[in-house]
């Protein structure tokens, strides 16, 4: 059983749009997930603009990869390092602790995540 950052079973982040490295709605990770897509976040306009400025456009649909393009309010499994980069820049989107994989703690502290949590810790 995989745990979240609170030490409880990892919950579903989002299935519409379908997220997760394995596109199963869960911010799980494995050997092939070089980016550690483990932070379940609710996207904001500020974060989408920030990540686009860093070369990762999450707003534009890419039909060949069955990627719908994301908008503010969507939940998505973000790369932990990008979330931390956004935190340091003051534009980190809110997170759902219950759906954020425990390995996110290798990139950000539990306190940092809790300060941006949508759910109760």
What can you see in these coordinates?
This protein is α+β, with helices and mostly antiparallel strands and 121 residues long. Helix content is 19%, strand content 9%. The chain has three helices and two strands, in the order βαβαα. Strands 1-2 form a two-stranded antiparallel ribbon. The longest helix is centred in the middle third of the chain and has 9 residues. It is globular and about 35 Å long. It starts with 36 loop residues before the first strand and ends in a 7-residue tail after the last helix.
Concise summary:
The protein is an alpha+beta fold.
What secondary-structure arrangement, pairings included, does this model have?
Elements: E1 37-42, H1 45-53, E2 75-79, H2 80-88, H3 110-114
Antiparallel strand pairs: 1-2
